[in-house]
Amino acid sequence: ADIKVFDWDTILAGTEQFSFSNKVGRGGWGTVYKAMLPPSGQLVAVKRLSTSSRPKSLNIFKNEILLLPKLQHPNIIKLLGYCIHKEEKLLVYEFMTNSSLDSFIFGIHKSPLPWSLRFKIITGIAQGVVYLHEDSGLRVIHRHLKLNNILLDFDMSPKISDFTIARTLTEHQCTCELKTSIVGTIGYIPPEIFTGGTFSVKSDVYSFGIIVLEMVSGKKSFNATYKEPMEFPLHYASKLWKEGRPLEMVDKSLFGVFLADEALRCIQVGLLCTQNEPKYRPTMPCVLKMLQGQDLEMELRVEQRPQIDDDDDDLSSDSFNADDGLVTNATFELDDTLER
User: Fold this and answer.
1) pLDDT tens digits, one per residue of 233-276
2) Span 140-165, average pLDDT
3) Alpha helices of 143-225 — where are they, by DSSP H?
4) Is there a smaller number of Cβ atoms within 10 Å at the N or the C end of the chain?
C-alpha cells in the first residue's frame, strides 16, 4: 500500500504544536500524539521519534516505513505516512479510539473487560500473528508482543502495533541470531533469548501465551513488587494446572461471569505457548485452531519454571536502559539495530 508524505506544518497544526493535551502515550523511542489534520479533520496518531539517539531512531523509522505498508490485515495497525523535517522524524498511523489493551486490563479503566470481549480480543491477536508468520508472504517476527502494543479500535477490535524491532525471515530461515543485545520487555521475553541469543516465530508464540495468561488472570506477567513465584501468572497457572484447578486463576474482577470452556482453552493455550523449549510450543495456526475449539494432540509439559532471584538487579524491574546499563521502569530496548 502507498503511504503519504505529510507536510511538517500540517503535523504541527494537527498536534497543536505537540501540545501536552494532545499527548496520548510515550514509549522507548518517542512520544505519540493525537492529531486532527487540516483541512479534512482526519484523526490520526503521530509518533514523534526521539532525536536524542539519531542512529537508533533512524533504524526504527526505516523499519516501520519499509515493513508496515506491506502488511494489510484487520488486526495490524495501518501506517498512513511519515514526515521528515530537519532532525525530526514522525510516523503517522490510524488513530485507535480505545487506546491500548494494557489500559483496560491493568490501567485507567474502572470497569473490567467482560469475558466475551477478552476472548474476542485474544482471538483477534492470534489472527494477526498468524498473518505475520504465515500469510503476509514475509514471515515477520514481531519480537515485541505485549499488552501495551495491542491497540483497540472503536469496536474493541485489537490491532498489533509497534514494529520497531520486527524482523523478517528468509524462506529457508528458521531462527535468527541477535546482532548485539537482548531486546524486549521482561515478562514477555522467552527463555531462549537469554540462553541462546536466537529468536524465531516461536518467540512470538511465547509472548502471545503470556498475553493470554495476563488477560485471563488480570495479573501482570512481571512486576518488581512480586516476591513469591505464585504471584507471577505463568507460575500460578502451571501450579493450578498440575493440581487440576486451573479456573481458579480467572480474573476475580469478572465475579465468575465467564465461559468455563473458553477460559480453560485459553489457559491451556497460554501454557502450551510458554513452554521452555521452543520446539514444544505450537505454531500460531495451531493456536488459532485450539482457540476456535478444535482438539489438537499436543503434549503439555508443565515444567519447572525459572525462579526469580530477588538479588538479580537485571530482573528487579521490568526495564533496562541501554545507555547506562541501569534498570529503570517500563520496557527495555537495547542495541539490536535492526540490520537487514
Assistant:
1) 999 999 999 999 999 999 999 999 999 999 999 999 999 999 99
2) 95
3) 191-195, 201-217
4) C
CA 5 from centre of chain: 27
Q: Return the residue matching grid coordinates 484487520.
A: 74
Q: Is the pLDDT of residue 329 over 70?
A: no
Query: What mean pLDDT comes out for the span 99-120?
Result: 89
Written as one letter, the residue type at 305 is: R
Q: Which of 76, 303, 318 is nearest to 189 (CA)?
A: 318
Q: Write b or e for each residue in 164-195: b if 16 or more Cβ atoms lie within 10 A of its Cβ, otherwise e.
A: bbbbbbeeeeebbebeeebbbbbbbbbbbbee
Task: Specify binding-site residues for ATP.
Answer: 47
- Stated pTM of the model: 0.85
CATH of range 4-94; options 3.40.50.1000, 3.30.200.20, 3.40.50.261, 3.40.50.300: 3.30.200.20
DSSP string, 280-308: GSPPHHHHHHHHTT---------PPPPPP
Non-local CB neighbours of 286 within 8 Å, separated by 6+ positions: 296, 298
229 with 308: CB under 8 angstroms? yes
Question: 101-315 has which fold?
Answer: Transferase(Phosphotransferase); domain 1 (1.10.510)
pLDDT of residue 172: 62
Report d(CA 291, CA 260) in Å as an integer: 13
Instruction: Determine the average pLDDT of the residues in 120-148.
Output: 96
Identity of the amino acid at 7: D
> What mean pLDDT is predicted for residues 306-312?
41
The pLDDT confidence band at residue 318, using thresholds 50, 70 and 90, is: very low
DSSP 8-state secondary structure symbol assigned to residue 230: G
Q: Which helix (H) or strand (E) holds 124?
A: helix 115-130
Does the CA dihedral 39-40-42-46 come out positive or negative?
Answer: negative
Closest CA to 48 of 87, 102, 88, 95: 88
